């Protein structure tokens, strides 16, 4: 496959992109789907293993860092990888990303303490974020917008499958060979993906010199890192009025101002500011941000609820996420086919976020007595609410921006979703820690900190005390899902501003500014 060159369909083109030869198209897209599966499994495989990991390497309060490190690195790496793909071609970026992903997995799997594990997850996340972004951009290179929607829906289903298959496999590996293997297991698949990719994708010939915006990339990295770090420590590890937190807030403001200044003057900015004047770019990424908060927060803490409150083994707790996967896959594939058949997509995010809001509210009403079938049904509807947004957001952005910015535009969808995931997981974790202090700690006067509480600790308590602690756990977890319902409701309001764009031809060169 050849990426578009500077001479390819440009801002003034009105011709519809021709579909490539079918057999070759399926081979290339299957290869890209494999890399997407690899990266998205790396995001989720750790969730059911978190209780065992933190019991081995650290206390319960460190649980969010294992997830956040990956999400943060993915968030920072995504726009840079998207820009590099626009400049030098998708193939070389995908090859490098696979290598980075595998190195990070090896470091994480070999970790002997929490800092090394977090370092490995950061490296792995940088590679994983690049894989997701560039994989989705390949679809835009190969297909016209209307045909593109069907494949974006299918890719979103792959993302959903791996998102839930990851925790299932992770729980099984934890119970059989140990948590270290949840990182090693991806290595042979990564090598296979690299080999297939090398044989099927053609390298783009660069016709003009490019200059990467290092200053913009650095400032963006500082900004996103500071936001996530503040979400992790503000109000939990440190008071909001403490000097480190105030310094972080100042760093966020300064790095954002610096980023906007640099990008407005850069020859080839990491994220062209003109994209933020496109309404669909604003709306789709606003929804991505909010849905990402709900999605990753839920995936991270549902296994905790099942293992502690319901006493379910790690592998079995992953099974219940299959319900969420089923809803997500059903909605993703169906939404892609609807867009391809009718060329309409505006109503889908509104319907999906409304369903998501209702399902998250139902999840927040769970108690110790809530039957597992009801939990599974709630998770299915959460999947239905998430699925369409994964596909529609990318289609809406790709159909509204210039083709020369296709990589970075596609990257923005991933960046905002992962930023929401990192911040959302941090907020969920902060609310959980607060709930633990409020409901659980008073029942266990023998401990000095809630960091000492692990699943093993709870399992070994006396029957009477254990029942009270489990009830308190449920009370500590429920407010997180109510917060998720509020975020989903806000996403619904944002989605009402989406503008329907025709999907018959290539992405337009320019779009009317936001109203």
Which helices and strands, and how do they pair?
Elements: H1 22-44, H2 50-57, H3 63-88, H4 90-109, H5 114-142, H6 145-176, H7 181-184, H8 186-200, H9 214-233, H10 243-263, H11 279-308, H12 314-319, H13 321-342, H14 347-364, H15 372-398, H16 406-440, H17 455-459, H18 463-495
Keywords for this structure?
515 residues; mainly alpha; Growth Hormone, Chain: A; disordered C terminus
3D architecture notes:
By secondary structure, this protein is mainly α. The chain has two domains: 22-204 and 270-495, Growth Hormone, Chain: A; 213-269. Helices cover 73% and strands 0% of the residues. It is built from 18 helices and no strands. The longest helix is centred in the last third of the chain and has 35 residues, at 406-440. It is globular and about 65 Å long. Residues 1-19 and 505-515 have low confidence and may be disordered. One of its GO terms (cellular component) is plasma membrane. Its main location: membrane.
Coarse shape? globular
Q: What would you report as the Rg, rounded to the nearest angstrom?
A: 22 Å
Helix content: over 70%
Low-confidence parts: 1-19, 505-515
What percent of residues are in strands?
A: under 5%
**What's the helix count?**
18
Q: Would you summarize the structure shown here?
A:
This protein has helices at 22-44, 50-57, 63-88, 90-109, 114-142, 145-176, 181-184, 186-200, 214-233, 243-263, 279-308, 314-319, 321-342, 347-364, 372-398, 406-440, 455-459, 463-495. It is an all-alpha fold and 515 residues long. One of its GO terms (cellular component) is plasma membrane.
């Amino acid at each position: 496959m050849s990426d578009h060159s500077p001479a390819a369909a440009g801002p003034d083109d009105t011709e519809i992109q021709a579909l490539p030869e079918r057999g070759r198209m399926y081979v290339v897209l299957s290869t890209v789907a494999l890399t997407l599966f690899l990266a998205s499994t790396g995001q989720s495989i750790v969730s059911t293993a978190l209780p065992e990991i933190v019991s081995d390497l650290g206390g319960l309060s460190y649980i969010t860092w294992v997830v956040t490190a990956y999400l943060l690195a993915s968030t920072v790496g995504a726009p840079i990888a998207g820009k590099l793909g626009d400049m030098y071609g998708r193939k070389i970026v995908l090859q490098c990303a696979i290598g980075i992903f595998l190195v990070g997995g090896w470091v994480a799997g070999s970790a002997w303490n929490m800092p090394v594990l977090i370092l490995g997850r950061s490296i792995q996340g940088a590679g994983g974020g690049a894989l997701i972004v560039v994989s989705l951009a390949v679809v835009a290179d190969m297909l016209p917008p209307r045909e593109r929607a069907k494949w974006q829906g299918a890719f979103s289903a792959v993302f959903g499958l791996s998102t839930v298959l990851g925790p299932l496999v992770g729980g099984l590996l934890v119970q059989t060979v140990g948590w270290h293997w949840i990182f090693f297991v991806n290595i042979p698949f990564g090598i296979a993906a690299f080999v297939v990719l090398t044989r099927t994708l053609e390298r783009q010939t660069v016709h003009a010199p490019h200059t990467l915006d290092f200053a913009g990339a650095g400032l963006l990295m500082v900004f996103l890192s500071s936001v996530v770090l503040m979400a992790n420590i503000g109000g939990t590890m440190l008071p909001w009025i403490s000097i480190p937190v105030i310094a972080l807030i100042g760093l966020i403001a300064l790095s954002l101002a610096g980023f906007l200044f640099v990008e407005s003057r850069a020859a080839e900015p990491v994220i062209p500011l003109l994209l933020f004047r496109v309404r669909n770019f604003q709306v789709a990424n606003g929804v991505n941000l909010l849905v990402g908060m709900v999605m990753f927060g839920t995936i991270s803490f549902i296994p905790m609820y099942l293992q502690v409150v319901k006493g379910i083994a790690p592998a079995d707790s992953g099974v219940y996420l299959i319900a969420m996967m089923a809803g997500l896959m059903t909605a993703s594939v169906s939404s892609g086919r609807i867009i391809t058949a009718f060329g309409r997509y505006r109503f889908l995010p509104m319907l999906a976020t409304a369903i998501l809001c209702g399902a998250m509210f139902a999840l927040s009403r769970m108690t110790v007595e809530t039957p597992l079938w009801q939990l599974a049904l709630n998770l299915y509807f959460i999947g239905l609410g998430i699925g369409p947004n994964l596909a529609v957001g990318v289609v809406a952005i790709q159909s509204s921006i210039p083709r020369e910015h296709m990589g970075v535009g596609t990257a923005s969808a991933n960046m905002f979703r992962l930023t929401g995931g990192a911040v959302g997981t941090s907020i969920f974790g902060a609310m959980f820690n607060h709930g633990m202090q409020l409901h659980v700690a008073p029942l266990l006067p023998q401990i000095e900190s809630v960091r000492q509480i692990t699943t093993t600790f709870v399992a070994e308590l006396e029957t009477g005390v254990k029942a009270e602690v489990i009830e308190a756990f449920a009370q500590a977890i429920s407010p997180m899902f109510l917060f998720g319902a509020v975020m989903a409701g806000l996403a619904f309001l944002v989605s009402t501003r989406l503008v329907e764009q025709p999907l018959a031809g290539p992405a337009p060169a320019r779009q009317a500014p936001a109203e």
